[in-house]
Specification:
The structure is a single chain. This protein is mostly beta strands. Helices cover 12% and strands 53% of the residues. It contains eight helices and 21 strands.
Length: 419
């Protein structure tokens, strides 16, 4: 039921988030009705109705604005508050800082429901006389002539796809600014042996339009009842993950690289003792996007799976079992912004195991997880999350005699800040 609810209430448009920064923004044209045209658009994560502040390095805060129209490489902004008119100039560079929607003054908020009529003569001229930027050209010419054979090909046409995807200058800019989160769960309860837990963790990632690097690490400590001896034992788990994304290799697809580590110890027994999943290259397809549904993505990534587990034989002796193989990782991710303070997020993973010797896919060994999160913005950068996680792992039962499924309920307090 929760999975279905997450699916119905949860799908990522890449929009300008609160406190997100876009640097080196230039005003290309100043139009009537306090509208300016800038050199950043949809490809940089800007969408219609985004709310932002224009700041200048030396003069500071220059203006507040709402985006009224956006194209792939540019956008039009209605400036509704200009405390320092002398700082609005085509000769200056700005930093665009996202602002929460709730900070839009009430009279100005009506701009989001109205169509803004304005004229950009320079842009109209380009549209009428220039080539269609969305037209698809043939790979081969209609007629091949001798001149076609000897014509010099420009450097841009000689670039390979990899060279176009890896823009080193933009990568250097994208990897400069980071945002981090610290969170703690004072109460966590799981269905396996009625364990009650607390956990702490941290996440960090860069604020960027194209090259996105993120990481997470968390520790969970649980007191539970041993299923055999009925004694109270302690359980601890460690989870860590690093992810690298090249956003929008084309309008509908991004790359995905992933490394994750998981370790779970019941007293002195690890089940698993260590579990690595490494995916050098996968892809994410952006299925749906608008202002409310922040994202609805489907990802696939092949994962090299390395798992070490402590097991007990009939005599009570401990030994290790190591299993290496391939998992096909399928992830359905979605997020819905209900209003300015409340949102749903859901990540659903299915990772069927494939034996490298026989190449047989084990349809029961799915390593399945669904992570549903209800997020409340309490104030500024302070958040309250309710988290419901469902896990299914056949090897818990096969190797350790534990139930093959687990449900975790937790409440979290989270604080976000810029590094």
């Amino acid at each position: 039921m929760w999975i279905i609810l997450g699916f119905l209430l949860s799908i990522h448009v890449f929009a300008l988030e609160s406190f997100e920064r876009l640097k080196d923004v230039k005003i290309l044209r100043v139009l009537d009705k306090n509208i300016v045209f800038i050199d950043h658009g949809l490809e940089d994560g800007i969408m219609v109705n985004d709310h932002a502040k224009f700041s200048q390095e030396y003069s500071g805060y220059s203006a507040r604005a709402i985006c009224v129209r956006a194209s792939s490489n540019g956008s039009y902004w209605k400036l509704y508050r200009i405390p320092y008119a002398e700082t609005i100039s085509k000769d200056l560079s700005y930093t665009l800082v996202g602002i929460a929607d709730r900070e839009i003054p009430f009279p100005v908020a009506k701009l989001r429901d109205e169509t803004q009529d304005f004229t950009d003569l320079e842009n109209q001229k380009k549209v009428e006389t220039g080539p269609d930027p969305f037209s698809i050209k043939r790979d081969l010419p209609e007629q091949l002539t001798e001149r076609d054979l000897i014509e010099t090909v420009g450097p841009e046409k000689r670039k390979l796809f990899v060279e176009q995807a890896l823009n080193h200058d933009q990568m250097r800019r994208d990897l400069k600014d980071y945002r981090a989160s610290l969170y703690a769960s004072p109460f966590t309860r799981q269905s396996i042996n009625n364990g009650e837990s607390y956990r702490v963790g941290a996440r960090a990632g860069n604020v960027a339009s194209k090259y996105r690097l993120s990481g997470q690490i968390e520790q969970q400590h649980t007191q539970l009842q041993d299923p055999v001896t009925k004694d109270q034992v302690f359980y601890r788990s460690t989870f860590a993950q690093a992810q690298f994304v090249i956003h929008r290799l084309n309008p509908g697809m991004s790359s995905l690289s992933l490394v994750s580590f998981n370790s779970q110890h019941f007293s002195r027994f690890g089940t698993p003792k260590s579990h690595w999943q490494v995916g050098p290259m996968g892809f994410t397809w952006h299925l749906f996007e608008n202002k409310t549904w922040e994202y609805f993505d489907l990802s696939y990534i092949p994962l090299y799976d390395m798992r070490t587990t402590d097991v007990l034989d009939a005599a009570g002796n401990k030994s290790e079992t190591k299993v290496n193989g391939l998992r096909h990782g399928f992830r359905l991710g979605m997020k819905n912004r209900i209003n300015e303070r409340v949102s749903f997020e859901n990540l659903f993973w299915v990772r069927p195991y494939q034996d490298l010797a026989s190449w047989k896919v084990e349809t029961e060994n799915l390593n399945l997880m669904n992570d549903l999160k209800l997020i409340f913005n309490l104030s500024g950068n302070l958040f309250f999350d309710y988290n419901l996680i469902y896990q299914y792992d056949k090897l818990w039962k096969t190797l350790s005699g534990l139930p093959s499924s687990n449900t975790i309920n937790s409440v979290n307090l989270r604080y976000d800040f810029d590094l």
